[in-house]
Amino acid sequence: MLNYMRSEWYRIFHTKALWVFTGVLAGLLLAMNAVLYLMGRGDPRFPYSTIRFSLSPLLSNMLMMGCSGLALASILFSDKSQGGIMKNAVAYGISRTRIFAGKCILSSAAAFLSMLVILAVYVGSALWLLDGEWEPYVQILIRGVLANLPFAVACVILFVAFQQFLGREILAILPWLGIVYVLPLICLYAGFQFEPLGKIAEWLPYNYLQLEVQVNMSQYECLWMNSQGMLKCLVSGFAGIGFFLILGVCLNHRKEL
């Protein structure tokens, strides 16, 4: 398994996919801050040329972390990039379950390194180009990223589980969307009639990130700003990691049969 992971790690860092993905996202965020800066210079009354406004899109939609992890995992372990790697690995005695675990570790590590670069460009360019108070908003962003990092890892694991079981990215994305987006809404609305489902719905990331995060020009309220909300995010995220790992192992065991 270690040899498989080393070979995959070498492939990931010596192909363009990781660097292009990171560069494109970082470039888009840098461009956004540059546009805000230029519009503020052109019109001193322009109200959005501030650090607060620049950081608000990510703070108001932390689901983007999970979606970005899915996108990167899809690129790194696409059918085209894998070729005959899976068949060769299985032929050398590496079980599908171990390959699944290796993919989860590698894709999560690559996504984490990519995120660090993207956030450095995002926050750094905002501090460099834009005006306004920065310390409280950067602290809220850092707390938000730390609080939702386990959820993002869980999203990567869920995608890898379906991708390896179903064999194609598009087929894996559909059940991923169902679990991350559709299931929480079903639980939320069903919870109005069946209280236990309502309690479950409160702990599903899509729901609490939509209902307990209010970020706009007049409000800056995020559940991870207090210890109880921070704990809720962490518990939910780590529970997702555990559940999706078990799901992935079960799916791959069934595949072997």
TrEMBL record:
<keyword id="KW-0812">Transmembrane</keyword>
<dbReference type="Pfam" id="PF12730">
    <property type="entry name" value="ABC2_membrane_4"/>
</dbReference>
<keyword id="KW-0472">Membrane</keyword>
<feature type="transmembrane region" description="Helical">
    <location>
        <begin position="104"/>
        <end position="128"/>
    </location>
</feature>
<feature type="transmembrane region" description="Helical">
    <location>
        <begin position="229"/>
        <end position="251"/>
    </location>
</feature>
<feature type="transmembrane region" description="Helical">
    <location>
        <begin position="140"/>
        <end position="161"/>
    </location>
</feature>
<protein>
    <submittedName>
        <fullName>ABC transporter permease</fullName>
    </submittedName>
</protein>
<feature type="transmembrane region" description="Helical">
    <location>
        <begin position="173"/>
        <end position="192"/>
    </location>
</feature>
<feature type="transmembrane region" description="Helical">
    <location>
        <begin position="58"/>
        <end position="77"/>
    </location>
</feature>
<keyword id="KW-1133">Transmembrane helix</keyword>
<feature type="transmembrane region" description="Helical">
    <location>
        <begin position="18"/>
        <end position="38"/>
    </location>
</feature>
